[in-house]
Design a protein that fits this description.
The complex is a heterodimer of chains A (204) and B (181). Chain A has 204 residues and is an all-alpha fold. Chain A has seven helices and no strands. In chain A, helix 2 (37-66) crosses helix 4 (87-110) and helix 6 runs antiparallel to helix 7 (171-195). Chain B is mostly helical and 181 residues long. Chain B has seven helices and no strands. The two termini of chain B are 17 Å apart. The chains are: A mainly alpha (204), B mainly alpha (181). At the A-B interface, helix 1, helix 3, helix 4, helix 5 and helix 6 of A face helix 1, helix 3 and helix 7 of B.
């Protein structure tokens, strides 16, 4: 599922996640202030150049391949603005969308999910100011990521059980048992957590 | 404490898993997904605070980069897409749904669930969603309203499903519906 991380290391892999997050966010925010399609297109070309400089042709191809999720949005925006006769605005929006995706993917392709989560945990220490327990945040992140494949598998199993009993496959029939099983899990896991010392009240 | 974190994690994971149910990308660039059903369920089952937290948790981790939105999307770049408003609206919608559930404790469970998920999961969710479409896709309010109306039938189905699930859980285990405790 988390196959976003590129398999070959690039120069940007060594830069710390914090710096990359700040850079990504500020670059994405700047995009919103650009209204000119030509400037937008040059940013897009510049981004492609950055991809090439960072990891060579292979990395550039990978980055372009990741753009395939934006294709439906681009087509719709293009038709919509052709219909409205706002070609300038449409081009700006399309290149803004693609550039934002390129920027975000550049960050994702060069940072491991593991490092990103470590960074979140590190900064969640500051959440203490708002009365949020950082230890609870770390445990919740771990549980969240671990339970996605479990719940997915369970949904599939319930689907199989359901299709063994009916000729139709319908999602809504499994939704009640799925929700009940989640509540069961919550009971078991929270008891198991408590039995192993529970969540620390204060970070020592 | 433990119970809260586990419930938040599991319901956030439920929203993520519902995103794996095949989605239909539509003309406005916002796909029809089962994920807003997850958001409604967070509110109706967990209540305002925990439900809102679960949705917030999901949104933060998605924006940070986990590819959890329908169609395997994720990352800060989403904020430039047409669905940006809907994503930001998830925690607000879950919170309002839960808040209404808590306010309508004395009413029959089915009425209470459908009312709160219509208000929280549709009306409240559409407000930031519409604003996002107007800003990011450059649509006028009328165009955005027309584009959004396509999702209404799907959302009504989700409200019905949320009502069935929540009232079934309430019947089987009344204590599990935290919003009504």
């Amino acid at each position: 599922m988390f196959n976003n991380v590129s398999s070959h290391r690039t120069k940007l892999d060594e830069v710390s996640v914090e710096k990359k997050i700040v850079l990504t966010c500020s670059a994405a925010a700047t995009l919103f202030f650009i209204k000119n399609p030509i400037v937008m297109f040059s940013i897009f070309s510049l981004l492609l150049l950055i991809y090439f400089l960072v990891g060579g042709l292979k990395f550039l191809r990978l980055g372009l391949f990741q753009l395939k999720v934006t294709i439906p949005f681009v087509i719709i925006l293009a038709f919509w603005h052709l219909y409205l006769d706002h070609l300038d605005k449409g081009m700006t929006l399309i290149f803004r969308l693609i550039s934002a995706f390129l920027i975000a993917n550049l960050f994702l392709l060069t940072s491991k999910i593991h490092d990103i989560i470590l960074a979140i945990q590190k900064y969640s220490l500051y959440l203490k100011v708002f009365g949020i327990n950082p230890h609870a945040v770390s445990i919740t992140i771990g549980l969240f990521i671990r339970s996605i494949p479990i719940l997915n598998q369970r949904a599939k199993n319930l689907m199989l059980a359901q299709s063994a009993r009916s000729t139709k496959r319908s999602f809504w029939r499994i939704s009640v048992p799925l929700a009940l099983s989640i509540l069961d899990d919550a009971d078991h896991v929270s008891e198991a957590l408590r039995a192993r010392g529970g969540i620390k009240k204060r970070e020592s | 404490m433990e119970k809260t974190s586990v419930l938040v994690a599991l319901f956030a994971a439920l929203i993520a898993v519902l995103g794996l149910v095949p989605a239909f990308p539509l003309a406005s660039g916002v796909p029809i997904t089962a994920q807003s059903l997850g958001v409604m369920l967070c509110g109706t089952i967990l209540g305002a605070k925990k439900g809102g937290l679960a949705a917030l948790f999901f949104v933060v981790l998605t924006l940070v980069g986990l590819p959890l939105l329908a169609g395997g999307r994720g990352g800060i770049g989403l904020l430039a897409g047409a669905s940006a408003g809907f994503i930001i609206g998830f925690p607000i919608a879950a919170y309002i749904t839960g808040w209404l559930m808590e306010k309508t404790k004395s009413v029959d469970i089915q009425i209470s669930v459908s009312l709160s998920s219509v208000v929280g999961g549709i009306i409240i969710l559409y407000i930031p969603g519409l604003i996002g479409m107007m800003i990011n896709a450059g649509m006028s309010l009328n165009a955005a309203l027309v584009a959004v109306s396509v999702y209404l039938p799907g959302d009504v189905l989700k409200v019905i499903l949320a009502t069935i699930v929540t009232s079934a859980i309430f019947k089987a285990r009344p204590n599990s519906v935290l919003a009504r405790n």
